[in-house]
Amino acid sequence: MQVKKLTSASITRAIACAAVLAYFLAPALADEVKAGDLVITQAWSRATPGGAKVGGGYLTIQNKGSAADRLIGGSADVADKVQVHEMATTNGVMTMRPLGLSIEPGKTVKLAPGGYHLMLLDLKSPLKQGDKVPVTLEFEKAGKVKLSLDVQGVGAKGPAGVRPIGALIARSNS
Ligand SMILES: [Cu+2]
After folding, report:
1. If you compute the radius of gyration of the chain from its CA atoms, what whole number of angstroms results?
2. Among 151, 129, 164, which residue's Cα sits nearest to residue 56?
3. Pick the residue with more confidence: 16 or 156?
4. Distance separating alpha carbons of residues 48 and 50, to the nearest angstrom
């Protein structure tokens, strides 16, 4: 067996990586919800402008178990219905469709603007920045899981305290 010697440069790089990771992960650790083998973090939403009747919900689901689970829906006092949606652009047209979202073992699935999301339909009252909106998620195996969505500003691209990685990439490409 070969043992690779760590150079001081690679150690420095490893420490820098760990620091960057900690920066992205730290806010998530404060607010995690466990349900069986699932760990849910960074549940957030956006304030709804004016008389908007729908809101979105975003979160990260990690499956630490050895069997797949499936997010099939949910409910919330603030909305008539909560569905799991996928947003996609087909021939330049933005579409959303309800689905059951499979969470494979060992995988992390992120619900985020532009992709998978929770859709809160027929809101009874607007979502306001700073609110914590209680939502119950329903999984095929883990069952019902209660959590709350941290409401950010109308144009927010990610949960509070976490810099959107997409924005960083976009900046470095320009
Ligand atoms: Cu939707």
Report:
1. 18
2. 151
3. 156
4. 7
Between CA 127 and CA 21 the distance in angstroms is 31
Model pTM?
Answer: 0.74
Evaluated on CA atoms 146, 52, 114, 121, the torsion sign reads positive
- pLDDT tens-digit profile of 50-63? 889 999 999 999 99
- Contacts for 2 with CB less than 8 Å, ≥ 6 apart: none
**Rounded to the nearest whole angstrom, what is the distance from the C-alpha of residue 100 to the centroid of ligand 1?**
13
Tens-digit pLDDT profile for residues 25-45: 444 445 799 999 999 999 999
Pairwise CA distance, residues 146 & 136, whole Å? 4
Q: Which residues contact 143 (CB under 8 A, 6 or more apart)?
A: 35
Tokens 């440069």, residue located: 9
Measured between alpha carbons, how far is 137 from 127 in angstroms, rounded to an integer?
18
Q: Output the CA 89–ligand 1 centroid distance in Å.
A: 13
CA 52 to ligand 1 centroid distance, Å: 13
